[in-house]
Design a protein that fits this description.
It is a single chain. Strands 9, 10, 11, 12, 13, 14, 15, 16 and 17 form a 9-stranded antiparallel β-sheet that branches. A 4-stranded parallel β-sheet has the order 3-2-1-4, sandwiched between helices. It contains 12 helices and 17 strands. It is globular. It is of the alpha+beta class and about 375 residues long. Bound molecules: adenosine monophosphate.
Length: about 375
Amino acid sequence: MATDLKDRFPLSPGSTIGIVGGGQLGRMLAMAAARLGFRVAVLAREADSPAGQVSAFEIVGDYGDPDAVGRLAAQSDVLTFEFENVSAAALAAAERAGAPISPPDRALAISQDRVDEKRFLNAHGLATTPFAPIDGAADIAPALERLGAPALLKTRREGYDGKGQAWVTSAAEAPTAFTAIGARPSILEARADFVRELSVIAARGRSGEVAAYPVGENRHEHGVLRTTTAPASLSQATRDDALRIATTLLEALDYRGVIGVELFELADGRLLVNEFAPRVHNTGHWTLDGCAVDQFEQHIRAVAGWPLGPTTPLARVEMTNLLGDEAHDWAALSADPRARLWLYGKRDAAPGRKMGHVNRLTPLA
Ligand code: AMP
């Protein structure tokens, strides 16, 4: 831990990578790190977490607790995170403990607020759906007038998987919609008239090199990702545009690590950015079986200062999330020779909870 930052990278095998978050993304990061000879320490909310089960050390504590994050950082040569809602105070504690954070905390801060995120994207020439910040129910009617109805009201912070969102079809619904999302600072978004939802998973290494995976096509059910199919069939222009968006964003953020960028494809082929996640992403799980170096290893390589790996697809993959008790079908799923099964080690199969996923492979055409 005493080495100068500039001398620390690339991290040697045997170094410790700290992961804030004990869920499935942390689990798959930890497995990838172990494969490269790293030790992994995780901070999880509960003992025996999906990530803790496969890591060298597990610290149990709250992600917002500077003391817990500080203890993790003190054991780690570099710190990363598997979800967005890490507090700024916790990250400052990590820096005090001497562990550099990757991706940079600025990327995290911007992605934590939907208004800041869209302003940042627009300022860098990346198109989003038109939007308006909403501080109270009274702001909704004038915004709706400008954006057109229906429009989608979302909390500025801490929304995920379609939670904290309400459609507003008329000004009369404003008070109900605002209450429904918890009467919190929010954003009203014009409805994006998309034909498909796509995403691009990309990485930037410590020396600034960028590598992007082929674009995936995503299908959601009730706001939760159901399937990703990759590589998506796209025109060359749309492919180039997705790469331009990912590269612009990674460079604007002076990023290190893997990023997930969610896109809306419009009927004319144009892409709008919905949002980005400064971490490995559910829509990148197909790379586990579709690419020689998957998104988890890529992230570990990037944060450790190693060269990025190839992102060329080796198969066409349909990734399906296993929600709730769907994972109980593990015996049948594992008997399918085209299917690769990933289970997250969660005991409680609550309805809708992501318990695992299955990648179904077909040869590339
Ligand atoms: P989000 O939490 O922003 O990822 O939104 C969850 C899902 O809601 C997206 O994957 C889309 O299916 C849908 N959605 C989000 N924003 C919009 C929008 N402005 N217009 C239409 N659909 C949207």
